Amino acid sequence: MTEDIIKQNIEFAISKEKETAAYYRQGAQIIQSSEGKELFLDLASQEDLHQKKISALDLERIEKSNIKNVPDLKISENLPELKINPDMDYQAILTVALKNEEAAHTLYQGMADHSQDPVIKKLFLILANEESKHKLRLEEEYEREFLAEN
């Protein structure tokens, strides 16, 4: 596998992270809930950090990276697809964020599953793992706020 192909895949991942950060920032401008604005701006910042981490990846770092198992609470799988609107409550805002992180994980996992090259496969597994961490954080918040017995 040439370094050019690896760089192309890294550039693709960076563009997806930029797109996601912009999505969260746009959502923060639309949503009226201060709690929702704060969550979306925090998620945008995390995506910005993701971009920096991906930019710093090189062949050696990819090969040496360890991927830790991230639990999946499977909350998002049972939630509806929603579009951002100004009057969303916090539960709907979390739902949008959860579905977004779930889609990002699915994208990267699918790319890893279809990669023949072990380095590219590992790159996308690393990215899928990062999205799983975001999803877990949001699922734990959703569970605390809306599923826990009061």
How would you describe this structure to a colleague?
With 150 residues, the chain is mostly helical. It has one domain: Ferritin, core subunit, four-helix bundle (Ferritin), CATH 1.20.1260.10. It is built from five helices and no strands. The N and C termini lie far apart (54 Å). α2 (34-56) runs parallel beside α4.
Walk me through the topology.
Layout (H helix, E strand, L loop, with lengths): L2 H28 L3 H23 L2 H6 L25 H24 L4 H30 L3
Provide tags for this entry.
150 residues; mainly alpha; Ferritin; 74% helix
Give a quick precis of the structure:
By secondary structure, the protein is an all-alpha fold.
Q: How many separate helices?
A: 5
Give the uncertain stretches in residue-range form: none
Number of strands: 0
- CATH class wording: Mainly Alpha
Q: Radius of gyration from the CA trace?
A: 16 Å
* CATH level 4 superfamily: Ferritin, core subunit, four-helix bundle
What structural class results from the helix and strand content?
mainly alpha
CATH topology: Ferritin
Total number of domains: 1
Oligomer: single chain
Helicity, in percent? over 70%
